[in-house]
Design goal:
GO molecular function, one term: DNA-binding transcription factor activity
Pfam family, one: TetR_N
Order of helices and strands: HHHHHHHHHH
Number of strands: 0
CATH architecture of the largest domain: Orthogonal Bundle
Keywords: DNA-binding, Transcription, Transcription regulation
Helix content: 55-70%
Protein name: TetR/AcrR family transcriptional regulator
Largest sheet: none
Shape: globular
Number of domains: 2
Structural class: mainly alpha
Number of helices: 10
Strand content: under 5%
CATH topology of the largest domain: Tetracycline Repressor, domain 2
Length: 236
């Protein structure tokens, strides 16, 4: 019986290129799927969007959590970078406002990231380190703005996640019908943080209309898998 001929070295780079192309396709699709569906999305959803078999995804990632870690760690670190930019601002109040707006935009654009930061769905040393670095920066951002006298003295760093929850609720409630509603609500929240109310923020979006509210409620009522205001899917 003839001995099977092993793959030549010339064939291996092509195989590696195919594998790399599949990996990039999987990650690109995962960004879209998790951003739209949140962390409840399945690997089968990612595979379908990428146009590959589920087995191909599992060959690259042993579990959904492993894919989430590969995909979102860089995005969590992006929030840390935003905090560093805020701290570099010579005006502590402006730095805090910059952080709230920029991190809010990141969260509004990506449902998976919102759920990941708020729920702690995946815990790993890398994520724990990123969370710790973010917490340290929040403490400094808040302390600076208080010392400046522009941030109310009873605001605490732990109030920042609550603001993020508000952004999540507003973004998830309004959906695609009013995607900028969270920006308007954040404007009200920022004014509420001021020690002095002599000036108010220019709101970034108009008020939602009665027709838009009716449209949003109708859409949510007729969508079987619509998420609740808290971002969680209703229990059956």
């Amino acid at each position: 019986m003839p001995t099977p001929t092993p793959p030549s070295l010339a064939d291996q780079p092509a195989l590696r290129c195919d594998a790399q192309a599949n990996l990039e396709r999987i990650l690109a699709s995962a960004r879209v799927v998790f951003a739209e569906q949140g962390l409840e999305a399945k690997l089968a959803d990612v595979a379908k969007h990428a146009g590959v078999g589920v087995g191909t995804v599992y060959r690259r990632f042993a579990s959904k959590d492993e894919l989430i870690q590969a995909l979102f760690l860089s995005r969590v670190n992006d929030i840390v970078v935003i905090a560093d930019s805020a701290l570099a601002n010579d005006d502590p109040w402006a730095g805090l406002v910059y952080f709230l707006k920029q991190s809010g935009q990141k969260l509004a654009d990506d449902q998976g990231l919102r759920e990941l930061l708020i729920s702690g769905h995946v815990e790993s040393p890398a994520f724990a380190e990123a969370r710790a670095r973010m917490s340290e920066r929040m403490t400094v951002l808040v302390s600076r703005a208080k010392e400046q006298g522009k941030l109310r003295q009873d605001f605490e760093p732990t109030d920042v996640p609550a603001i993020m929850w508000t952004i999540q609720a507003s973004r998830d409630f309004a959906g695609s019908r009013c995607p900028d509603l969270w920006r308007r609500q954040l404007g009200f929240l920022i004014d509420g943080l001021r020690q002095s109310r002599e000036c108010v923020s220019e709101l970034a979006a108009p008020a939602i209309t009665r027709d838009q509210i009716a449209s949003v409620m109708s859409m949510r009522h007729h969508t079987p898998d619509a998420t609740s205001v808290s971002g969680q899917r209703p229990r059956s």
